[in-house]
Amino acid sequence: MRQIIIIGSGPAGYTAAIYASRANLAPLLIASSVEAGGELMKTTEVDNFPGFAQGIQGPELMMQMQAQAERFGTEIVLDDVVSLELEGQVKRVTLGNGDVHEALAVIFATGSAYRTLGLEDETRLSGHGVSWCATCDGFFFRQKTIAVVGGGDSAMEEATFLTRFADKVYVIHRKDSLRASKAMQDRAFADPKIEFLWNKTVEHIYGDELVTGVGLVDTVDGTETTLDLSGVFVAIGADPRTHLVHGQLDLNPDGTIAVAGRSSKTNLPGVFAAGDVIDPTYRQAVTAAGSGTVAALDAEHYLAALPKDLVAAATQPEPAATLA
Ligand code: NDP
Questions:
Q1: What is the pLDDT of residues 25-40, one digit of tens each?
Q2: Which option is the CATH number for 120-234: 3.40.50.10800, 3.40.50.460, 3.50.50.60, 2.60.120.10?
Q3: Top-level CATH class of 2-114+238-312?
Q4: CA end-to-end distance (rounded Å), the chain
């Protein structure tokens, strides 16, 4: 049995691991089989993480966080959690490979998952012209005409990035104004390759093998149009990943996990939540990192208050590095 298991490997999970391992709690971090490192693995320049005056690539930032967590004794497992038993003093975490890990405390930091448009053809043509990741797939659209759907920071970031490859990038937005920050809007407006299509929803995605176009409906007058293009990037936000804790942890009406006040404490003793999975508003790498810190400190205080024999029963390997 462990003292603490951390589920999730974005900025919240790794920061919680850095703090927990420096507190000599020898955490086990479950990092996911295919998405280790979280959303920043799909980003390019990160210019707003303090401490990197010239910016840093998203994947590099996550590798640094991982290395920092490992330096103090975090053990990382690349697998998916398939089920959780969070009630009771000993928590059980079952992985896709069948392993079951036990711990006295769990930090849940699973982030959020991309929203979909909900169209049948979106699923069918996923990977064949429909994408949720410009940095992953942008390269395939050199000299093509493509579209980004959405009006937030993600859509602006994707559209701007995609102009490196595509000849033309439409931004299709259901309203006539953007939700994105002014800086991101200004950058997109100034880009000659980007054209905005306002008050439009995507009702169809056309194409047999590959995307060939989209069908749009005007939200003001209902007119239908088609647009020929080779790719559709969906950037309409994300929802907290909570399916593993349904029925166990209380959720807020917006779908995030409910925590007490500014803490990371869920409705179950010994279970803490951090990062995008509790945050419907800020959702920045740096706020997620701060949230991971809160969770690690809350977990540390929780463990310190447990009966000593119980904590002693939880294995505590030697830390991998001398603590500063
Ligand atoms: P947001 O929730 O901010 O924006 C989602 C956008 O998609 C909105 O414009 C919304 O429209 C639209 N939308 C939602 N659902 C649909 C739908 N079914 N069909 C069509 N359009 C839809 O999500 P983001 O991913 O853009 O950003 C999330 C958070 O991450 C924000 O806090 C953002 O600031 C942050 N972020 C920061 C970045 C940075 O600083 N570099 C980069 C990327 C994200 P409507 O406006 O009508 O609701």
A1: 999 999 988 888 888 8
A2: 3.50.50.60
A3: alpha beta
A4: 26
Whole-structure pTM value: 0.80
Query: What pLDDT, on a 0 to 100 scale, did the predictor assign at position 317?
Result: 53
Catalytic residue among 79, 133, 191, 218: 133
* Dihedral angle over CA of 171, 176, 179, 180, nearest 10: 40
Whether residue 137 lies in the annotated active site? yes
Q: Which of 47, 80, 99, 136 is catalytic?
A: 136
Which one has a higher pLDDT value, 259 or 48?
259
Q: Judge whether 167 counts as a catalytic residue.
A: no
Domain residue extents for the chain:
2-114+238-312, 120-234
Nearest CA to ligand 1 atom 3: 152
CA distance 243 to 6: 16
How many residues are given for the chain? 324
Please give the number of the atom of ligand 1 that sits closest to the Cα of 238.
25
Q: How far is the CA of 188 from the centre of ligand 1 (A)?
A: 15
CA of 247 to the centre of ligand 1 (A): 28
Half-sphere exposure of 272 (CA within 13 A, CB side): 32
Q: What is the predicted pLDDT for the residue at 39?
A: 83
